[in-house]
């Protein structure tokens, strides 16, 4: 067997593709599946005909759909074609009418017989089956098939089109082959052969809840009563009144037949309809049924629920809901079985439209495990699934068949299952529903509604809000408590590097340690009245509402717990749990807060921190100020308003200006001047803004001084500039071309976190090579690494202003200046010292005493735009 | 590159007699308003009200004590909140000790509390609204006609103001007034004699308005001595709604701030002035807080509101029952009592509405109620007020109740609330008394242990025996001798001898003791987590030894001066 899938692009391309595939009916039967989301009925038949002209012997199996699956990917608005060539086995296809000529539906027995006669043989293993929504007997037909042709697995469903309605089942789908199309027919393709083996399974994600209820009255697909009570009313009371505003909720809460409790059956809820509105009495079967049950009132308008197939009295139902973790669990088990099937030559996959409506990421996520396999299929409106050896009709399922004649491997992607974030995001819908209901229950608006709602919601919560490994509420429960119950003091507890344990310790002892860790946290929290949540693996959270627990108490308790956890005995592995206590949490800020708490802790190497989650959010005024500053910077860059100011540096021997320091100023529209203190931080945080400012500033200073021979200038350079190739190259180019490179001094900020000394030293050497000079700025302000400073051969050393300013008041500062002066004397390297912030004569006298070479400050001159 | 220095703002509060109920309350309200904004440091400098009587020991003491003001002139301060009763428009030209001082501090933004100085930014009570509410009630509802007043000092702006309003209100309700119905007091508890004089003149007085709560305390003594039942024979109401008013027997009705406190308002104005904005003088609206001495209800519950159980109503109920809560800006780190009250009360009301409460909810509510009181709910109300309010709610709910099961639970919960209210308040009282005893005990120990050792060293070493958790002791190199005819000049430097930090004693090594006086309020030794500091001069006789800065707590307002005096004495002794 061999299968190839491709998207239909044009007839010409189609012919090419078939040629490339070298399809030859002599080698075996050929099945050509067409799932189209773009063709109208007649166009589809036209396409089928064209294919049958190219390969007359091919069996064509065509359906309409709303979206297609090709190579394990969901593709919208395309037509895909899947070609399967058998080696030894046979393919038989047939399209059979599901309605008699008189308009009545074919009974399920007759249909089974017809199908059996048409395609089934003794060694038929798998039958692809597609029908249309018009035939409401689909459930019975699939059930009966188990009797008529046992052992034949079935996969398929009801064809739909891109038209989708939340309120009503539309019956716009059709099936087709080269002979024509029909919306009142069944199309089947039986794959048979002695060596053919197939395996079919399914995943739903549905969780049944509560008691069994019996269907006591029906009309066609409409369930009229359950246990004698009005079925639609019961359904609405159980979900809540918002059902009328949010019809999509029906997709979250299907029924299941109690005999196969993980196969969902959907109902559609309508608020105000009579049976005549729902069922067209001009249809012969409806007319016949109405005559058969004249006692029913067909005109009364009221709320109704309808399934997408005929329902029968006596069947037992249970309520159910669909949620992420069950989806994950079901898919894992499905995948495990598919993965282990040996003869995996071809994969068929069909998924439900309802699945993609409630859980928009769900279909993509579950398909991602099959992304590189040759899985081909489409989206349907109801599926035929193979459950425990029996075929059954289902809704909202993902059904997969794997089939082959000889052992083969597919490329699966099991890692897909570890990325469940997108699914958890999908859960929001479900959570939002629960939030709403909880709120209403709290406010008791829904009090008059049945207790069943309350019980049902509790059941949903119990499944959804509890961790699957521990008996603890999970992350979803945490967000719910934050939102609804005012749990705003959260302590996040995590143990990192647990993977390292597993390389050294046996699993048993790790498990024991884990158990001990969880138990200690749980019992401690319980004793104090806090709530513990199991986020993931070793990650726990402890929550407390601020209206019950004061922060200092909470922090003290958490510290105590951490100490308890640190205490280890020989029985356990020593672990280091990190505690971050977050105050003022909301759903919006908690993630940010957890993240920044972790960053702080790892950067400072601390294991406990307390922070205000709301403090990470800037207040409105500072945000506004920030954006104002960004505007000012942009304006200055674009309107040539980056203005260099110059401050003379006084030579204490000759009493002249030795050189100038260039200082950056910005001017806004109103002519207001901004100092670096106000804009530099903002510019730095916007990276590129800083780069443009630097570039502009350097260019301007160079231009100003390039033709001046007798004056030197110094320019501030940050580590970011030195790492910026463009700026550095510009500087090098300039220095090589300018006549007096020695007139240019580059001031490197000492306090900026210089992380890359090699680059810095390379820069310094290059500047020296080219004849420029280097100055170290703000010396003494950071925690100077003297060794590094010594290794950089700087020409000037500028003592940090705060030391100079306080030198007359503070003896320590004066000592520091003396120390630097002494260092200069000792070092062989010729280095000159500059003191900035020289504000008065007193300071200047002190500097003279220590033989400081140069002074800069208001005592001599203020920065100004002119030299 | 320019450096922008950002530091804490130092706000200095100068007020008369820190031990008075009004002052304590004012300091507390300012401190509470600050706690949200951690960039502000509050330093309280209490001074003494000086009558200016010649050759009186107390007068001398007060004069020396008031040297503490010199610190406020020297130290760097960003803003001032001043409450000095004698600084007023009327006393402007009388050359009191404070006028001169105000001139010296003219460069610093300042807000005056309870003052009518025209050229300054002031914060005052809107005296009229509350007094009018009370008189209206007495005249209209109770139908009384003979209302008297115990007034204050003539140099006090509020005293004059309140008297004027009192007379005006009586006039508006066509009640008689003659000067006989009025008597001056010194605005303290020592008002028994004045009250006697007033009652002698007016034996038929039916109601008495006291200029403040302290004065009412004196009046209570007099009335009780005369066998009058307060609240029945004579109705009494005071002013300021201090905590003391609810501790009196029977609890005193009092006029107090309605929506914001004096201190909070003053701080708000001061901060906007520090930020360079224009600030205008403000008033704080008042209303009458009814208690047993004048049975007046601020708020009538009605059954319809109760049955609807809407959040706005429950919060209103909380504000009524715990009337002090909204006046005190509450630290975010603490338990949010408002929300907690809402959480359990709403559940109770809903249970009442639906006539059902399950056992589990009951258990949870019990826990919440316990927590509520454990976390100090009683600080914001008084037990009589609360129990009467609760009873009222309870009665209405019982009338509406249809289901026995729910009612039993709900009534049990209410009983629990009342029980907790009383238990917690009595606990509070007992622990307060114990604390006072302990402080005395500790000071005794301090004195005893100081005698053993020679010199000041022993004294510093035993600094922790004073029972202060956070405190700094600054001592001048040489004590300054006060000279009545000369202005006291503080030296440039002062020595930080020792400090208490979180209950631990730190003796400073000699080379790190020296501080410039101007820096002490802003010194970063004070980065400990405190609401503020109160400074007391360490004096003995004519000598000023230094300054004791203590963490601002409720106790320190009462004990601080005493502790500082003991320190002064011990220092003087150890010198000999």
UniProtKB/TrEMBL annotation, chain A:
InterPro entries assigned: Cyclic-di-GMP_PDE-like, EAL_dom, EAL_sf, FIST_domain_N
Domain called EAL: residue spans: 626-867
Signal sequence annotation: none
Gene3D superfamilies: EAL domain
One GO MF term: cyclic-guanylate-specific phosphodiesterase activity
SMART domains: EAL (SM00052)
Highest taxon in the source lineage: Bacteria
Name recorded for this polypeptide: EAL domain, c-di-GMP-specific phosphodiesterase class I (Or its enzymatically inactive variant)
Organism: Ruminococcus albus
From TrEMBL, chain B:
Keywords: DNA-binding, Transcription, Transcription regulation
Residue ranges of every copy of the Transcriptional regulator LacI/GalR-like sensor domain listed in the record: 142-293
Alphabetized InterPro entries for the sequence: LacI/GalR-like_sensor (IPR046335), Peripla_BP_I (IPR028082)
Molecular function via GO: DNA-binding transcription factor activity; transcription cis-regulatory region binding
Top-level taxonomic group: Bacteria
PANTHER family: LACI-RELATED TRANSCRIPTIONAL REPRESSOR, XYLOSE OPERON REGULATORY PROTEIN
Stated name of the protein: DNA-binding transcriptional regulator, LacI/PurR family
Species annotation: Ruminococcus albus
